[in-house]
């Protein structure tokens, strides 16, 4: 399966399949033949779980640099180590970089590629469900001690090779986390699709075919939006549904404690409560959606671990916050997002409603 992404700065394809790494990477042969060196960045967990398959199927010679697992690779230290590796390997602007891992490896590698010698081409090889989102669209970043994803660039890959065989070793918690972004893609685009997800016995244990279908649908939503608005001037903001409140929970907990998608799911329910005030969605639907999330094992305890005042500190750090007014993505109906400024006092009211709902 192939999903084209056509941003202003770059056109590329996401190729999606199962057990097809060799063939999929080979489809970029014309570009890779011209490269003087291929470098693979991955993380320790991914390399331990999938390194053998990767080595057996990657169709070219390559050098590998193994980063610490997960979010720990998105630091200045690892950024520096990755650049040092490229220099030591005598990489030139004709070298090619691969990000083999989840969103964390993808974000770090993308930023390394964007800045090494002012930019070398890179290909994303995502290994998580969440990365159906993060690997597409060209946002790259590392974290600063004062804020997540604060240092980065918009830099599009040459392509995305998504082999769902990698998902087989993904821990269930990470499957759940990534699926929250699939659910978000359904919520901002298609009521029928969301209904199907909500009716499924489980959204965590899809068959290979069903998973591919869901990922493709998610990638199509993301591809369409970033093709229209690469740098988040307009419709790309809709992808932030659930992320304003979600990021506050994620940050308050300390990154990694609450997984990104777990926090997004919390944020999605919060956004439904807020949407009730401005659109056609009602409390009955919000409750149904909460039950759907609980049934699939999404944890909500984190909400009660922090007061609104604690969360507020992080809400105000949101890149989209201005003068104490937050920009929330809300839903008129499922599939119809819009952006609305919301004052902190109202955020607090809805936060109280949320806590009541969870009680
Ligand atoms: P991740 O990359 O941290 O991976 C989650 C965990 O699973 C890690 O411990 C990782 O080592 C491990 N792992 C990954 N693939 C595996 C596999 N196939 N088998 C076994 N273990 C595996 O997390 P993620 O959820 O993929 O991504 C989260 C990151 O993505 C965050 O840093 C977030 O900021 C970023 N993000 C970026 C964008 C974007 O547009 N650039 C969008 C959303 C999220
Ligand atoms: Zn997200």
From TrEMBL:
NAD(+) binds at residues 103-107, 127-128, 139, 148. The keyword Nucleotide-binding applies. Pfam families: DHQ_synthase (PF01761), DHQS_C (PF24621). InterPro entries: Dehydroquinate_synthase, DHQ_synth_AroB, DHQ_synth_fam, DHQS/DOIS_N, DHQS_C. This is 3-dehydroquinate synthase. Pathway: Metabolic intermediate biosynthesis; chorismate biosynthesis; chorismate from D-erythrose 4-phosphate and phosphoenolpyruvate: step 2/7. The gene is aroB. Its EC number is 4.2.3.4. It catalyses: 7-phospho-2-dehydro-3-deoxy-D-arabino-heptonate = 3-dehydroquinate + phosphate.
